[in-house]
Task: structure prediction
Amino acid sequence: MNAAAGMINAGADGADSTRSWWLPALLLATLLGACSARPGPELLSPIASTPSARVVSVYVATTRARQRPDSNIFTNDHSRELNYAAFKIAIPPDHHAGHIEWPTFAPDPALSFATLQQEVIDRRTFEQLIAARSSPRTPLKATVFVHGFNTNFQEALFRLAQMTADADVAGVPILFAWPSEAKLTGYVADKDAVAASRDQLAEVLTMLARDSAVADVTVIAHSMGAWQTVEALRQLRLAHNDAVISRLRIVLASPDIDVDVFRTQMAVIGPLSPPMTVLVSRDDIALSVASFIAGERPRLGMIDVDDPRIQEAAAKAKVEIVDVSSVKAPDRMNHERYASLAALYPRLAMAGADGTGLRRAGAFVFNAVGATIRARSHWRAAPSAAGDIRSRQLT
Result:
């Protein structure tokens, strides 16, 4: 049995057959609880700033179609070519790390996230704006965020602005937005949308990796967007774009990927340097529902790092798997813990240039330090101000 196959079999053995009765009820409860208003495109209308608000610039490459050629309001339709945009987003002074302060009524930069400026741009301007952020003294780092299932454009845009503000590091945040239906009943449609957009994601990653002004490209892909990202990497490898792949640092957050599919993808992609990082948690309700929809097929984002087979498989497959269950989730589905990790980035980066504190493959547990958070592992370690990551009995 090879390492990746061991990861698959271990994940499959860990699937709980009792979910067959409670997951339909959970899905129904989720659907009924999703009736609250979603942020609409009206939040993209620019308003006046306030001196107390922090401003984050976000650049966008999207496969969503524009409502009009001169508009940054995007539909759920797939565009035949990439569309580009630039936004300035205000972060309120009393912002709580890991959360998005959505406006209750009209956006107010003193109290909520708000759009201060937006611009319709083309590819050439997109590249020029990114290059203009470079400095002879400071290497330019780009972060590409690929959102997940059931996410509208403004939710993805503001989430990236939140993570950028919380991380508080110099760099260029870039949103790759694909045309999600932004509804719970659109799971199959979203699967089709990510498949239709993987070529364009590979195009954007190639553009950034070949830009001499960009020194480093980190990709943070969430949920279904993780499948799209791994597929884009697979395509780049099959096209022999090894130089592009070597410039990328990949983080998969709560990946909604069938573990058997992941095995076949990684067989083509091969080991990455630094290793691909996979953030997992076993109490991810959204992935439990996704697993049920997929016929009880185990999802990568829920694998058990305590399982010795997972530990061995991760080490041999050169993948860094980190259990982040100890991090408080900003959502009721325990599916967006990655958003809370951004605030810890500066201190974690001090422990390693890759931002995780690690440079090796294997299975790990993240220990968040706080009044209501405790380490899940049986071993004890000295606490740190930011939390830490420790190895789990790799074989």
Summary: The mean pLDDT is 84.
